[in-house]
Amino acid sequence: MSSAAAKPNPSTLLPLELIDKCIGSRIHAILRTNKEVVGTLLGFDDYVNMVLEDVKEYETTSEGRRVTKLERILLNGSNIVMLVPGGEGPEGTVAATS
Amino acid sequence: MAAPARTNPSDFLKELSGRPVVVKLNSGVDYRGLLSCLDGYMNIALEQTEEYVNGQLKKKYGDAFIRGNNVLYISGSKTKK
Amino acid sequence: MAATAALEAAGDHQLAEITVEEPLDLVRLCIDEKIYVKMRNDRELTGVLYAYDQHLNMILGGVVEVITVTEIDPETYEEIYKETKREIPMLFVRGDGVILISPPTRGS
């Protein structure tokens, strides 16, 4: 009984602590309105507004996918749906499943 | 292992203040101009603002206030005015 | 947070001039001026700004509202823009529909 209490529950890692561990590495953000952004995470705040570097922005429309490259951005956290640590974006995802 | 250098949103915004920026809205419209200031809601004041729709210059404004809820991202712009 | 910072700054330095410390100051400078407002749903307004609050709810007077509707020609698939204009003497605008506010270009 006492040994169970000594082991820390792995789920005590808070979601934002996981994102904190991603600082300095690539991250893939899936946004509302068919947009995805991939970049190196430089920092973030309590709203998960994120500063990203060497960014690729993917816009998926009925006509296909448009990619925009950007140096450094502040991404508004209110549009983020999911974050994939280490993700290389829609291109990487397709490669992994095929 | 040393922790990587952090640039949090507030640090980034200090760097951008007074400089040319691109503000992209959720609608896909881009605004290019000089960043005058910005608040906690991401409301933005721009000077010498240009509005681009589908990459085409549509309109110019002297000053412009952009309501923060429409903002997708703010990016530093390399093209000096 | 930004507002309190601006207030502190004003207290410390005794700002002599009206300056743009935060974005809403730009709107404050437009009181009793004719402004342009870009709204969601392809609506544009021009009118005199009488009042506003922190949500960007606004009272505008002598308003001209322009609504742009895009239709696609069923034969040529070309986009056709149709503008509808109307005049409203006094108008309350709810802030959540606002995208952009621009003051009149000074000196013109």
From TrEMBL, chain A:
Keyword Nucleus: yes
Signal peptide: none
Cellular component GO terms, alphabetical: Lsm1-7-Pat1 complex; spliceosomal complex; U4/U6 x U5 tri-snRNP complex; U6 snRNP
InterPro entries, sorted: LSm5 (IPR033871), LSM_dom_sf (IPR010920), Sm (IPR047575), Sm_dom_euk/arc (IPR001163)
Origin superkingdom: Eukaryota
Subunit structure: Component of the precatalytic spliceosome (spliceosome B complex). Component of the U4/U6-U5 tri-snRNP complex, a building block of the precatalytic spliceosome (spliceosome B complex). The U4/U6-U5 tri-snRNP complex is composed of the U4, U6 and U5 snRNAs and at least PRPF3, PRPF4, PRPF6, PRPF8, PRPF31, SNRNP200, TXNL4A, SNRNP40, SNRPB, SNRPD1, SNRPD2, SNRPD3, SNRPE, SNRPF, SNRPG, DDX23, CD2BP2, PPIH, SNU13, EFTUD2, SART1 and USP39, plus LSM2, LSM3, LSM4, LSM5, LSM6, LSM7 and LSM8. LSm subunits form a heteromer with a doughnut shape.
PANTHER family named among the record's database cross-references: U6 SNRNA-ASSOCIATED PROTEIN, U6 SNRNA-ASSOCIATED SM-LIKE PROTEIN LSM5
UniProt name for this protein: U6 snRNA-associated Sm-like protein LSm5
Organism from which the protein derives: Hypsibius exemplaris
UniProt lineage: Eukaryota, Metazoa, Ecdysozoa, Tardigrada, Eutardigrada
Gene (name only): LSM5
From TrEMBL, chain B:
Main location: cytoplasm
Keywords, alphabetical: Cytoplasm, mRNA processing, mRNA splicing, Nucleus, Ribonucleoprotein, RNA-binding, rRNA processing, Spliceosome, tRNA processing
Subcellular location: Cytoplasm; Nucleus
Domain Sm span(s) in chain numbering: 8-80
SUPFAM superfamilies assigned: Sm-like ribonucleoproteins
GO cellular component terms, A-Z: Lsm2-8 complex; nucleolus; P-body; sno(s)RNA-containing ribonucleoprotein complex; spliceosomal complex; U4/U6 x U5 tri-snRNP complex; U6 snRNP
Name the record gives this protein: U6 snRNA-associated Sm-like protein LSm6
Any GO BP: maturation of SSU-rRNA
Classification via InterPro entries: Lsm6/sSmF, LSM_dom_sf, Sm, Sm_dom_euk/arc
Annotated function: Plays a role in pre-mRNA splicing as component of the U4/U6-U5 tri-snRNP complex that is involved in spliceosome assembly, and as component of the precatalytic spliceosome (spliceosome B complex). The heptameric LSM2-8 complex binds specifically to the 3'-terminal U-tract of U6 snRNA. Component of LSm protein complexes, which are involved in RNA processing and may function in a chaperone-like manner, facilitating the efficient association of RNA processing factors with their substrates.
Presence of keyword Ribonucleoprotein: yes
Protein origin, superkingdom: Eukaryota
An example Gene Ontology molecular-function term: RNA binding
Subunit organization: Component of the precatalytic spliceosome (spliceosome B complex). Component of the U4/U6-U5 tri-snRNP complex, a building block of the precatalytic spliceosome (spliceosome B complex). The U4/U6-U5 tri-snRNP complex is composed of the U4, U6 and U5 snRNAs and at least PRPF3, PRPF4, PRPF6, PRPF8, PRPF31, SNRNP200, TXNL4A, SNRNP40, SNRPB, SNRPD1, SNRPD2, SNRPD3, SNRPE, SNRPF, SNRPG, DDX23, CD2BP2, PPIH, SNU13, EFTUD2, SART1 and USP39, plus LSM2, LSM3, LSM4, LSM5, LSM6, LSM7 and LSM8.
Family label: Belongs to the snRNP Sm proteins family. SmF/LSm6 subfamily.
UniProtKB/TrEMBL annotation, chain C:
A molecular-function term among this protein's GO annotations: RNA binding
Native source organism of the sequence: Hypsibius exemplaris (Freshwater tardigrade)
Keywords (A to Z) from UniProt: mRNA processing, mRNA splicing, Nucleus, Ribonucleoprotein, RNA-binding, Spliceosome
Assembly and oligomerization: LSm subunits form a heteromer with a doughnut shape.
Primary location recorded for the protein, binned into one broad class: nucleus
Family designation: Belongs to the snRNP Sm proteins family.
Acetylation keyword on record: no
Occurrences of domain Sm (ranges): 22-107
GO annotation, biological process: mRNA splicing, via spliceosome
Subcellular location: Nucleus
PROSITE patterns per record: SM
CC terms in the record's Gene Ontology section: Lsm2-8 complex; spliceosomal complex; U4/U6 x U5 tri-snRNP complex; U6 snRNP
PANTHER family according to UniProt: U6 SNRNA-ASSOCIATED SM-LIKE PROTEIN LSM3
Keyword Ribonucleoprotein assigned: yes
Source superkingdom: Eukaryota
SMART domains: Sm (SM00651)
Protein's UniProt name: U6 snRNA-associated Sm-like protein LSm3
Reported function: Binds specifically to the 3'-terminal U-tract of U6 snRNA.
Gene name of the record: LSM3
InterPro entries from the UniProt entry: Lsm3 (IPR034105), LSM_dom_sf (IPR010920), Sm (IPR047575), Sm-like_LSM3 (IPR040002), Sm_dom_euk/arc (IPR001163)
Listed Pfam families: LSM
